[in-house]
């Protein structure tokens, strides 16, 4: 995945630093930068469908075909669209004495005996709380008369119904700071302070900052000798809106919108540090952000047992769809891998 460089391309001229008040000066700089970055009041509108789902007026009612199985996508633990036991041609036609019979992966479906799968009076199949185990091939047997005088006609309609989940997507940032000597405790203290401030900055967005890596290296600069630099790598992900430190309870909670706002705040936070440093008349702190080193990568991941496949699921290209038999996903990768011995939906191992 390609990294996007943020800020000016040049690092700017570095100056020799005095060692006094190492942590305090750097911490004050961070606090001022965070204070100047304000969280916008609006974050966006809640959308339950995945970002890549192509919503049409017929998305909540799906008709069948006698030529091929129609693919249906149901978000895990959510209510399904109405799966109709008719073709597009018969949808608005008059059917005399119609009868509908549904069969799923576990056999015949009877509404009275099944609390999660129900058949309406017009033959539509509706799932109330879709589970992984419900994924599979469903067949509806339709019998009807076009007119009272004609003989009974019979149709068999197949549907491939898949559970899907929103991808686990997040931003990964890297940034570099001029540092104290690599064995100094001031670097460790600064690292903790930086993560604390970033976490507070994103608190209202129900986003989480995670430090992935922090390393100190000696960097040889042209005409400047060796300098100490901290290399930070951290991620920003959206929390469950009901479980975050400040739960999101209104309609401004879509994860992608919150992450986009978080990205903008982080960019502004680091840009503020550059502006504050440029206005200082006194000596700069030993630990300070190196202009132009902030980089960002957008990362998508699917949960084990799920994967993305634009060719197989063109109507849901950015959905993490449950892996079909013959495939599996053992970790939080993007795609389902081939496994001929896998016979179930949502396989996490290849035996």
UniProtKB/TrEMBL annotation:
GO terms for biological process: acrosome assembly; binding of sperm to zona pellucida. Belongs to the zona pellucida-binding protein Sp38 family. One of its GO terms (cellular component) is extracellular region. Its main location: cytoplasm. Residues 302-351 form the Zona-pellucida-binding protein 1/2 C-terminal domain. It is found in: Cytoplasmic vesicle, Secretory vesicle, Acrosome; Secreted. This is Zona pellucida binding protein. Keywords: Cytoplasmic vesicle, Glycoprotein, Secreted. Pfam families: EGF_Sp38_C, Sp38. PANTHER family: ZONA PELLUCIDA BINDING PROTEIN SP38, ZONA PELLUCIDA-BINDING PROTEIN 1. Residues 69-165 form the Zona-pellucida-binding protein 1/2 N-terminal domain.
